[in-house]
Structure formats: C-alpha cells, structure tokens
Amino acid sequence: MILELDCGNSFIKWRAVTSDGLNVCCGGVVAADEALVQVVQRQVISLSACRLVSVRTDEETARLVEALRRAFSVECVCACPAVELAGVRNGYKQYERLGLDRWLALVGAYQLARQACLVLDLGTAVTSDFVDAGGQHLGGFICPGVPLMRNQLRTHTRRTRYEDQLAEQAIQSLTPGCSTVEAVERGCSLMLQGFVRTQLEMARDYWGEHFVVFLTGGDASLVAGMIPEARVVPDLVFIGLAIACPLR
Q1: Which of 20, 58, 101, 235 does the annotation list as catalytic?
Q2: Annotated binding site for K(+)
Q3: Alpha carbon distance 37, 32 (integer Å)
C-alpha cells in the first residue's frame, strides 16, 4: 500500500491507497507524528511507499520523514513547489511562496475539470483559487475560516464561552441568534457564505457560467447547499499529490 499524507500546521490528514492508487483502504486525521505512526501500524498491513505534502517547516517535515523511515522502512517522496505542473502554471510572482496544499488542490481540480475552475478550500483557513481554461492560475484569496473566527471570539471575548455540541446545534438555522452561541456560530457561517458568494461573482465576471466550482475542506458542507452544482471533493489535495509525486 501507499501512504499519502497532507501535513498541515495543526493536523495530519492521511490515507492508505492500493499500489495502483485507485482504491482507498483507510484514512483519518491525527494531531501528532507519534499518533500517525501508531494508527498506521494498527490499520495498515504493509507499506510499499509514501508520498506527502507539507506546509510545516523543513525541520518538522524532516522529523516526520525520519519517523516514518524508522517505523515502516519507506522513503517518503515530498511534493515541491513548481512553476508548472500537469498543464497548470503557478500564478504567484514568487511561485515557491504559494502554499503546497493550495497548489496541489488547484492542480488536482484542473485535471478533473479540464476547464476554468474555482477551488474553494474551507478549513481552519479558507482559500480560493482561480484557474482559467488554459491552466493559468490567476491567484486567489486567504481568509480566516469558521474555526479561526470562532476561536478568536472565544479567546478575546470573555463572555463568549460554550461547548462544541452547542455550536453544532446552533447552525441548524441562520435566523438571528437569541443566545451567544447562536449569534457567534450563525454570524461566522454567514461571513463564510458571503465570502463564497463574492468568489462566485468574481468567477462569473471572468468566465460567465463556463467554469466548475470545487469544494474541499472540513467545512465544505456549510456552503454546499448554496452551490448545488459544485463538485465536493474531500481528497482534492491527494489527487494533486499523486500527480506531483508519481511512484511508478
């Protein structure tokens, strides 16, 4: 099996796929290198290879690569910045400064769509990227996601304290909140939806109706209802990772 990793600043998303890359056997999210090694040892019979994308520091990534080498006797292939990949041209003036997870997601989206696309990644942070029909990345935006907005309010406003279970219940409706949890959660959701509407308007200014919207990230469900035509692809980064790091 092949181990694929998306190493963020806070969490590591992982999955194990068959050697042909066509079938996902298992996967999940962990918070630390040690937890990753343990869960993979429990759930994966054997590994033949590993590929990863990391937005961590070089030192942190190197420690993880060494831990995997010791535990599974595999050499990890790491995605690197690129000016161009699989027909997509990096739109950043300093191409190496574009987050690798964003880069791989937009490469993966373009390979699936083969036309202009808007890629929305709705996680801890929210990112959007525009790729035209010829594969030119036009740039994008970054803003706080719902988790960051919520945590900032909880941290800096003393009376904003509530349990996660209450937060889940609060967003069942978007009517004006009659409690702090409802006001915060629904306000954050509406800010997220407003951002997404702005991105859609911008994409229509570029391409009319001739583009595909991709949604990925843990909060994609919060806006999926407002874009029924969108393609929800949770593993979009891994699709790009396989393109960037072929193992055959």
Answers
A1: 101
A2: 121
A3: 9
Tens digit of pLDDT at every position of the chain (248 positions) = 999 999 988 899 999 999 887 889 999 999 999 999 999 999 987 889 999 999 999 999 999 999 999 999 999 999 999 999 999 999 999 999 999 999 999 999 999 999 999 999 998 899 999 999 999 999 999 999 888 888 777 766 655 666 666 666 776 778 897 888 888 888 888 999 999 999 999 999 999 999 999 999 988 988 999 999 999 999 999 999 999 999 86
48 assigned to some structural domain: yes
- Asked if 101 is an active-site residue, the reply is yes
20, 62: one domain? yes
Binding-site sequence positions for ATP: 6-13, 124
The binding site for substrate consists of 92, 99-102, 180
Same domain, 195 and 98: yes
Looking at the structure, tell me whether residues 223 and 138 fall in a common domain: yes
C-alpha angle 241/3/140, rounded to 5°? 25
What pTM, to 2 d.p., does this model score?
0.90
Structural domain total, the chain:
2
Sole residue written with tokens 């083969």: 114
Q: Domain range spanning residue 32? A: 2-78
Residue 215 located in a structural domain: yes
- Same domain? For 23 and 108 the reply is no
- The sign of the torsion formed by the CA atoms of 219, 195, 31, 231 equals positive
Choose among 130, 129, 168: nearest CA to 147.
168
